[in-house]
User: What shape does this take?
Amino acid sequence: MEKNKKEIPEFSNEDEEREFWNSHDSVDYIDWDEAERTLFPKLKPSTETISLRLNKGLLETAKVQANKRDIPYQSYIKMLLAEALIKEASSGKEYSPNKKGQ
Assistant: This one.
């Protein structure tokens, strides 16, 4: 069966493309039944620099623990944060800043 799909427009930058896909459904443009899974082994996830204030004791503990593992402390903190977020998500509990005991 022939599937009529719309043509994907040309984008001048990623922001323009992001806006487009935020307001359009890809099934109107792409035949996902014909899609093939692929891997991008050299693709690095995008990161964003943030400023995070930690008390000195907590930071020193992180540095000591990271040093024991022979990894940079920033990487160690990211690893711990990722593990905690995965554990929280798998617990089925939703975080609410207004709930007591969280």
About this structure: Residues 78 and 84 are 10 Å apart (CA to CA).
